[in-house]
Write a structure and sequence with these properties.
- The chain contains 4 helices and no strands.
- The protein is globular and about 35 Å long.
- It has 74 residues and is mainly α.
- The relative contact order is 0.16.
- Helix 3 runs antiparallel to helix 4.
- It has one domain.
Length: 74
Amino acid sequence: MVIATLPDRDWYHYELGSLFTDVLSLCWRHLRGDVEKDADLREAFLSILAVLCARQIPEALHLRARVAEVLDIR
């Protein structure tokens, strides 16, 4: 997955953690049903969210808690 290979300096310089988390939050808000039903979309969504959570992005950790209430993730 390309997102996991981005250099640390880009994450910091371009605030990619917040940017990617905002996109995932919008996706969850507007396409939640699709994320729940479509296995490929859900896998991509959760993979990106996992990368963000591994980087300890606060907003991503909060989003993971919200998503975990609906999807079976840990």
